[in-house]
């Protein structure tokens, strides 16, 4: 069994493996100059015996290391070496060693040793040596270099062990055709298969796809005033009725003149002062300049502006300083350079935020046509669930789910209908659900949908709607009910408070964004929370076969990269983990765990929470 190998570099790594005595080092010593002749810059990593040393007793570096320096870096202008004392009880980690390589200085890393790792390797085999093959039990062998008499499978690239030039050609070819592995997101909607009828557990991606297929964008639109447009979604492209800026104007307080006059290097005669909101009607003549303020229209005859601090003024004369650095058109903002008249200023499906509202205002738009906001009805179920503000009865808990759901839905620009806590009684539930579906685009409940749940909600839903009860391969948030009650979409979220939030973010959020008419012209997975790559600062436990959504805390570390650690205890009822965290760490179904230093993806909360 070979261990998985993650290449942390953006250049290829190619191993050479063989039983000892085959002549690995001899070959590499001949291969390296051949590769250099072919223009390849090489790094080599070699596995060594535990007691190797590169230093010499008596040298300063040796003595200082022996005196206790854990790392010793010795450097001159031609060479440097870093020696690190590691007291490991097993082989050093190849990814860790690779990170020491300066990948911008070499084209490929050749690795000698590390036979057990699943990195791409060339097997060296000498028949006379009488040793077994490696490729028969290691599918990372990309080629075998052997002698004439050796039998090899037809599908394996065969090289001549005694023809170094041929092996060098193969390495060059390998380096040139190598591509960094494509990054896949932990939840990959594009490659999720359609669920089979009766399938027991659904992947998160299958669940999201299935939900998105049932959702269509609201078609009703309304005109809304600028001040009330925040977080609404544009129903049609916004075409600019004007140029922004309207006039070619100055970006500086300074002096405006014709660039062609600069060469004369004589003072200009200042004919006028142009203030923002005013104009100069005449044409500025050769030898003339205007004093001009930021935002003031540039008069005819002027094409260049020099900031005031680079000018010397005496009465009505201005002399330009540092004329060599003046460029034609400097500090002039051209009419329409931000947005030209008849351009699409904002496209249909844009969610309007502060920047978009400012832009609409800059076009003079006082209203915009937006998609009607989705209406979301929310209720909680369960005999133990009590209203905050009331005295908590024995064995009960306060209803937190309704408040997290409402807050998240509001952030997504929805109207809310709060149906409160509905008692576990068939008639009450039926009435509430029918009433909710008549008023709302989406009805969301929490609790009562897990397997073996005694709650009435499942029975009622089965009667009045078409609801699927799913088990999603995820933690937290396994149970999920999704379907229709009349024309409304229904979500039955789990009961546990963290599971509710995680399920909302993964499943309800995309549905609400799509329903609201949001469109992302570029994003491959529109409506989905954003993924940001980060480096795990600690071992993170998961389990293959389910997606894990750990609450995490990310920060920018001293290396300038985003690092993340878990918030600690991860109980699905512990809302405090959502409060202390600032992201979800999303671990793919295929991963059993993430080791410290390994890349992971996070979903920052900033999107919605
Ligand atoms: P259930 O899915 O109904 O079995 O609920 C799972 C867990 O979530 C139980 O511990 C419930 O007490 C809890 N729970 C259910 N609804 C709510 C709610 N609205 N607020 C807080 N916790 C809840
Ligand atoms: Mg319950």
Mean pLDDT: 93
Instruction: Order the strands across the largest sheet as they lie in space.
Output: 9-27-29-30-26-22-25
- The CATH homology group name of the largest domain: MoaB/Mog-like domain
Global Rg: 34 Å
CATH hierarchy: architecture of the largest domain: 3-Layer(aba) Sandwich
Could you name the CATH topology of the largest domain?
Molybdenum Cofactor Biosythetic Enzyme, Chain A
Small-molecule components bound: adenosine monophosphate, magnesium ion
Sheet with the most strands?
7 strands, mixed
CATH class category of the largest domain: Alpha Beta
- Runs with pLDDT <50, length 5+? none
Number of helices in the DSSP assignment = 11
Helix content: 10-25%
Pathway: Cofactor biosynthesis; molybdopterin biosynthesis
Protein name: Molybdopterin molybdenumtransferase
Family: Belongs to the MoeA family.
Function: Catalyzes the insertion of molybdate into adenylated molybdopterin with the concomitant release of AMP.
Q: Explain this structure to me?
A:
This protein has 609 residues and is of the alpha/beta class. It has 5 domains: 13-47 and 91-177, Rossmann fold, CATH 3.40.50; 204-215 and 373-515, MoaB/Mog-like domain (Molybdenum Cofactor Biosythetic Enzyme, Chain A); 221-243 and 338-371, Molybdopterin biosynthesis moea protein, domain 2, CATH 3.90.105; 249-333, Molybdopterin biosynthesis moeA protein, domain 3 (Beta Complex), CATH 2.170.190.11; 532-604, MoeA, C-terminal, domain IV (Beta-clip). 19% of the residues lie in helices and 28% in strands. It contains 11 helices and 37 strands. It has a 7-stranded mixed beta sheet, with helices on both faces. Strands 2-5-1-6-7-8 form a 6-stranded parallel beta sheet, covered by helices on one side. The protein has a 6-stranded mixed beta sheet with strand order 16-13-15-14-18-17, with no helix packed on it. Helix 5 crosses helix 10 (497-515), helix 7 runs parallel beside helix 10 (497-515) and helix 8 (426-439) crosses helix 9. The longest helix is centred in the last third of the chain and has 19 residues, at 497-515. The structure holds adenosine monophosphate and magnesium ion. Adenosine monophosphate is lined by residues 380, 382, 384-385, 397, 399-402, 446-448, 450, 453, 455, 494-497. This is Molybdopterin molybdenumtransferase.
